[in-house]
Amino acid sequence: MKRILGCLVAVWALSLPSEAQLSRYIIKFKDKGSNPFSINNPAVYLSQKAIDRRTRYSIAIDNSDLPVTARYLDSIRLSGTVTILNVSKWLNAVSIQTTDAAALAKISTFPFVQAVSGIALRTAAAISGGDKFEKEKEQPPVQLKEMGVTADFFNYGLSFNQVQIHNGQFLHNIGLRGQNMIIGMLDAGFNNYETLKAFDSVRANNQILGIYDFVARDSSVNEDNQHGMQCFSIIAANVPGQFVGTAPKANFYLFRTEDASSEYPIEEFNWVCGAERLDSVGGDVISSSLGYGDKMSDPALNHSYAEMNGNTTMAAIGADLAAKKGILVVNAAGNEGTNTWKYLITPADGDSVIAVGAVTSSGVVVNFSSYGPSSDGQVKPDVASVGAGTIIQYPNNSIGGGNGTSFACPNMAGLTTCLWQGFPEFNNMKIINALRQSGSKASSPDDRIGYGIPDVRKALANLLKDFSSAGASVSNCTASIQWTSKDVISMRYEIERKIPGQNNFIKIAQGNGSGNTFGTRPAYQYQDVLTGVAPGIISYRIRQVVDTSAAGLTAVYIDTVSVNLQSACVDANLVDVTIAPNPASDALNVRVTTPTASSDIVIRVFNSNGQLMSSLHKSKMAGTAFFDNISLTRFAKGKYYVSMYDNNKLLATKELIKL
Q1: Model's pTM, two decimal places?
Q2: Which domains does the chain have, with CATH numbers?
Q3: What is the pLDDT of residue 120?
């Protein structure tokens, strides 16, 4: 994470040629002096969930966590005709509304005040900007009928494609659906969420934990803009056979930080206040389909592309501070791809933010999706999700499509939440990196979709590799291999072994996971009897197959361990012959165990008519010998018999199927 605190001062150095028309201001304080709160007693100003997050990820509680000094706020309030709007402890600042020039002059003289900056008109009506989200076009509602039951846990209906493009159904099928995770939605309003069918489940299950309107400063967001409601539906909807979201079992806070009819820096300040609120209540993920660039209602307040460096704007500073506190921030990259601006907008430029670009459900980049990189050269967007024809809830209770990175963002945020649910041991940046590395362009990121379209099944497999551990020991000619991982019963473990004299690992055992919901299991154990194995280093590797379906086979080697066999373990009566693989296509591996050495081990292959097809002569020491990669390429498909002889004495005959 970049050094961000030292850049705060840039926020207040705004060029304001029309400041006389402004009536909303930010007052930046120099310090938190005379503060009655202490970093040693955080329970007074942080919830236990927020404290637990800091403890889990070794995040220190620092001065930025302390509330703004109350006497500073009292002085501002009593300076004249002044209304305090919102307070940010992270920025150590307060937003106010006033037209009292004498009050502003007085505030500027306070010794604890660092700067006074005008950042907005008194009301949105003064600029009559309409709805700034209108460019994110809706598509006509569709006539829906209940879809048939599928093999997946959820019957997604029309939303299947936007889930499936990330293999998101895999997470849902193994029990990761957002349970016990908390997502904060920062937006312009959640029109009619109290009655729309997409939210029946979250209402019935009390999954909406709190709401607040930082614009109107009240506790109602149901009557405001529909944009946030539509973004919310992409995560939370649960209408079986029609529309199911990407984390429908998560818990939510709904915060209105945006005025849909205007664009001023005060909305960035509100964004930071919303992020702080989510942190304080112990939230996990922010989904924000908001952004700020060159479209301010007062052009004098526009940002420049040079400011899109992750360190300059209030929104980016707030987003990176949220990440520093352990929150995972997902933000829309912006819809500037066909505009003069072209580039991403803030806070998507934050280096600790997942900026989400837009693709179609078939993975084609959408032209309106903002370009990267950030002005300081970061790969941006970070990833991409479905932002064209994304299935959303409409205010009239119909379901249809919508276009915009605003809709790609929550689609990705929901699946990100489910992935993190499976690995609470890992911090936010570990999850972000796993998503980036699972992207379709991870090896060659670009300025359109960054690391590409994440595959959350692959991301989970890679996180398993980092989480899992294994050990091995040997005693009395038996190797004991133990390992710990996370799984469900549909997953599979395969044990592979390489002994002295072998060049490759050979699978020697396999078994299923356990449990119906993805999680950590007690340590597994496998005993390998080493009779007939030559002394030396014996290596084992554990392969976890996380998806065993033929179409989605996904596996990862979670660990490799070794033991040192000091002396050969030979059974004086043991004679054993095995062949693998069987059936075989190109090559055959033969293992022969005898109690004594032999100068003439003969391997003969006969066809089903008894005709000799090949004969190989080998020698071996006492114990087990491996004869690998015996070519079968010239053999036709069918049934064969492999016979092994020791100095003309038949040891065994094995049936072989050639593919």
Answers
A1: 0.84
A2: 5-126 (3.30.70.80), 160-462 (3.40.50.200), 468-565 (2.60.40), 576-658 (2.60.40.4070)
A3: 67
